[in-house]
C-alpha cells in the first residue's frame, strides 16, 4: 500500500471490534463493514486474525469503498512483548500481517508483562508460556510499564504508528505513565457498558485529554461462551433498555450504543452479520434525551466481565489482578 497519508484525525465514534471473529470469516466481515460505512477497525495480535483483517482492508480499498487515509486502524502490543527490545518487532509483525505501513493507534493491550515467546515458536503467543505444561501457567516478568511506554513512543517517532495508548489500565497507572511520558497516551480502551459505566474514569480521561474507546459495549455477550458471564447478565435484555427502544423506535443494541457514544467514548461492537453491521452504525443517527441517558446510567452495577484478577487464575494458573 503506497503512501502513508495523514490518517483520520478523529477517532470514529463506532468501530468494528475484531475479537473472537474467526479467521475464515474475518476478511469478509471487514470488507462488508467498510463497504457499509465503517471507518474504524479494532484489531490486536492476540485475536489471531490480523492477516485476514488486512485482506479485508485491501479488498475494500481496491474496490473504492474508502482510501487508507479515511480508515482508522488500531492494533495492540501483546503481553509477551513488553520488554523494550521486543516492542518494535511486535508492531512490525502486526503491520506485516495487516499489510499496512502504519497504524493509526497502537495500544498496550494489558498492563501485564509476560516472558517472551519467539514468533517462530508460537504466534499469537497467548497467555501461558508452555501450553503443554501441567498445569499451564503464565510467566510474569518484572518489566515496568514505563519502560514499555518508552519503546511505544519510539514507534511514533519512527513513523510506524500515529498515536499510542493504553488498554485495561486503572487511573493510578495512567497517571504514572502520563507523568513520565514524552508522548502522552492518546486513547484509553476499557470495558464499558451500562452495567460498568465507569463514570470517574471517563471524567478523568475527559479532563486529561485522553480519548476513550469502550469495548464490550453490550456487556456480557462475548463472555457467555467463555463461562465468564451468563445470559441473565445481558444488557440488551434489561427492561429499561427495551422500554426505551420501544419508545423511540430503535433496537436495544442501537440504544446501548447511542448511550455509549453520547457520553463521549467511541464504541467497538463485534458482529459478523451484515444486517447488524448496518444496525449498529445507525446509532449515530439519533439522540437520547437526558432522562433516558440517566435511566441507562443508573443501571451501573460495577460488573466487570473481562477481569484478569478473576480469569487468569482459573484459566492460566496465575493470580494476576489489575483492578482492586
Entry keywords:
single chain; 324 residues; alpha/beta; TIM Barrel; eight-stranded parallel sheet; 8 strands; 10% strand; disordered N terminus
Concise synopsis of the structure shown:
This protein is an alpha/beta fold and 324 residues long. The protein is 37% helix and 10% strand.
Strand order of the largest sheet: 1-2-3-4-5-6-7-8
Could you tell me how far the N terminus lies from the C terminus, measured between alpha carbons in angstroms? 44 Å
Helix percent reads: 25-40%
Largest sheet, described in full? Answer: 8 strands, parallel
From the spread of the alpha carbons, the general shape counts as globular
- Please indicate the percent range of residues in DSSP E strands (runs of 2 or more): 5-15%
Q: Architecture, CATH level 2?
A: Alpha-Beta Barrel
CATH topology: TIM Barrel
Low-confidence stretches: 1-5
By CATH reckoning, the class would read Alpha Beta
Order of helices and strands: EHEHEHEHEHEHEHHEHHH
Mean pLDDT: 94
Structural class: alpha/beta
Q: How many β strands by DSSP?
A: 8
Structure characterization notes:
The chain has 324 residues and is an alpha/beta fold. The chain has one domain: NADP-dependent oxidoreductase domain (TIM Barrel, Alpha-Beta Barrel). The protein is built from eleven helices and eight strands. The protein has helices at residues 23-36, 50-62, 84-98, 145-157, 171-180, 199-208, 239-248, 252-262, 274-281, 290-297, 308-316, and strands spanning 16-17, 40-42, 72-77, 105-108, 164-167, 187-191, 211-215, 266-267. The chain has an eight-stranded parallel sheet. Helix 1 links the parallel strand 1 (16-17) and strand 2 (40-42). Helix 1 packs parallel to helix 2 (50-62), helix 3 (84-98) crosses helix 4 (145-157) and helix 7 (239-248) crosses helix 8. The radius of gyration is 19 Å and the shape is globular. The chain starts with 15 loop residues before the first strand and ends in an 8-residue tail after the last helix.
Amino acid at each position: 500500500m503506497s503512501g502513508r497519508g495523514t490518517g483520520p484525525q478523529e477517532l470514529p465514534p463506532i468501530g468494528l471490534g475484531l475479537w473472537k471473529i474467526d479467521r475464515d470469516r474475518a476478511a469478509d466481515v471487514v470488507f462488508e463493514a467498510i463497504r457499509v460505512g465503517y471507518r474504524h477497525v479494532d484489531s490486536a495480535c492476540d485475536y489471531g486474525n490480523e492477516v485476514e483483517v488486512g485482506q479485508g482492508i485491501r479488498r475494500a480499498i481496491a474496490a473504492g469503498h474508502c482510501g487508507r487515509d479515511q480508515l482508522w486502524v488500531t492494533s495492540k502490543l501483546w503481553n509477551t512483548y513488553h520488554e523494550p527490545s521486543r516492542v518494535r518487532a511486535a508492531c512490525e509483525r502486526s503491520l506485516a500481517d495487516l499489510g499496512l505501513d502504519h497504524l493509526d493507534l497502537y495500544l498496550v493491550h494489558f498492563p501485564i508483562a509476560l516472558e517472551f515467546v519467539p514468533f517462530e515458536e508460537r504466534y499469537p503467543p497467548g497467555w501461558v508460556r508452555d501450553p503443554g505444561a501441567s498445569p499451564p501457567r503464565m510467566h510474569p516478568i518484572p518489566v515496568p510499564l514505563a519502560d514499555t511506554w518508552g519503546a511505544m513512543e519510539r514507534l511514533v517517532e519512527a513513523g510506524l504508528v500515529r498515536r499510542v495508548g493504553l488498554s485495561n489500565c486503572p487511573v493510578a497507572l495512567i497517571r504514572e505513565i502520563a507523568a513520565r511520558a514524552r508522548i502522552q497516551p492518546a486513547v484509553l480502551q476499557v470495558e464499558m457498558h451500562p452495567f460498568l459505566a465507569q463514570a470517574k474514569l471517563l471524567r478523568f480521561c475527559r479532563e486529561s485529554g485522553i480519548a476513550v474507546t469502550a469495548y464490550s459495549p453490550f456487556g456480557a455477550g462475548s463472555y457467555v461462551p467463555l463461562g465468564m458471564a451468563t445470559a441473565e447478565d445481558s444488557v440488551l435484555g434489561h427492561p429499561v433498555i427495551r422500554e426505551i427502544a420501544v419508545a423511540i423506535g430503535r433496537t436495544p443494541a442501537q440504544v446501548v450504543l447511542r448511550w455509549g457514544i453520547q457520553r463521549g467514548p467511541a464504541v467497538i461492537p463485534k458482529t459478523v452479520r451484515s444486517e447488524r453491521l448496518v444496525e449498529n452504525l445507525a446509532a449515530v443517527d439519533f439522540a437520547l434525551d437526558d432522562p433516558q441517558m440517566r435511566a441507562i446510567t443508573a443501571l451501573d452495577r460495577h460488573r466487570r466481565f473481562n477481569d484478569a484478577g478473576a480469569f487468569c487464575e482459573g484459566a492460566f494458573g496465575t493470580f494476576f489482578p489489575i483492578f482492586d
